[in-house]
Task: inverse folding
């Protein structure tokens, strides 16, 4: 009897990974079916934070980031806070010229003539509301995009390229393609951040809170999830050209599951020819599929 019990236990040990792998393949197949709706390229990277198992779909593709790049920028600024170069309550002078015209900027709407604004407020506007004036101003304080790029490399994240500011991207269509990332690398960066391996606890908490207060993209990762779901995320959206091509409709973040565990997910819908509602619904459906799969 003891021998039979041992054999049975061994069979279970070997079958569980096989069963889990089959389940993951089913989820990947579901994602592939959803992705077909985009008429473009969909890249997905998922990490079960506590279990550490991963799933990718086009996870190594180089896909346009747009405002998702504000997450690496925020990490770099807060690294400077941790290093003593800045403080969160430090007022920084934004001149009227720093309040960019003809772009998305709730910060400019609040301070049309500029002013002395706490770094914490500028950061919050950049992350939570994806403010473009705040973004380019903070990049200037850092010395440009190269500082952010170098910091990503310092962290061991090689699949993220940051070359252009918001102003640069607005000036020429092709420049948006110089800011790209691999979905798997963005998930890696989010994982390091959420583990507390990048920033001090207070700056980690500050950025996490700002990401939970994101107001952009409510119909993306959050779109089909229960209203009470906590998600810390950052979106990215490109313009659509005359031919109906949209290079980027993105959402990346950390989802708290009903079982108390966490899911790190990056979804990029790139070079798509469907309308905004369809693009956003693709992200929402993928988010819901992953949420349901990992909530069990």
Result:
């Amino acid at each position: 009897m003891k021998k039979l019990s041992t054999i049975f236990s061994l069979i279970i040990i070997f079958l569980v990974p096989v069963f889990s792998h089959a389940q993951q393949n089913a989820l990947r197949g579901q994602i592939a079916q959803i992705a077909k709706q985009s008429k473009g390229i969909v890249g997905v990277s998922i990490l079960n934070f506590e279990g550490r198992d991963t799933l990718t779909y086009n996870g190594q593709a180089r896909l346009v980031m747009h405002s998702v790049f504000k997450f690496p920028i925020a990490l770099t600024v807060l690294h400077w806070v941790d290093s003593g170069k800045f403080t969160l309550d430090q007022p920084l002078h934004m001149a009227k010229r720093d309040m960019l015209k003809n772009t998305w900027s709730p910060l400019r709407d609040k301070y049309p003539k500029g002013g002395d604004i706490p770094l914490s407020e500028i950061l919050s506007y950049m992350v939570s509301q994806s403010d473009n004036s705040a973004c380019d101003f903070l990049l200037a304080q850092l010395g440009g995009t190269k500082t952010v790029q170098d910091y990503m490399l310092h962290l061991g994240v090689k699949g993220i390229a940051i070359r252009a500011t918001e102003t640069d991207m607005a000036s020429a269509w092709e420049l948006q393609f110089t800011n790209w990332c691999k979905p798997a690398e963005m998930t890696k960066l989010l994982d390091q951040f959420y583990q507390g391996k990048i920033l001090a606890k207070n700056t980690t908490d500050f950025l996490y809170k700002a990401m939970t207060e994101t107001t952009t993209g409510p119909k993306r990762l959050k779109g089909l999830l229960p209203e009470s779901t906590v998600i810390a995320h950052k979106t990215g959206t490109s313009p659509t050209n005359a031919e109906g091509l949209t290079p980027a409709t993105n959402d990346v973040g950390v989802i708290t599951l009903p079982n108390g565990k966490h899911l790190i997910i990056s979804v990029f819908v790139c070079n798509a020819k469907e309308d905004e509602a369809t693009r956003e619904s693709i992200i929402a459906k993928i988010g819901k599929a992953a949420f349901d799969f990992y909530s069990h």
Q: What stands out?
A: The CA atoms of residues 243 and 273 lie 8 Å apart. The mean pLDDT is 94.
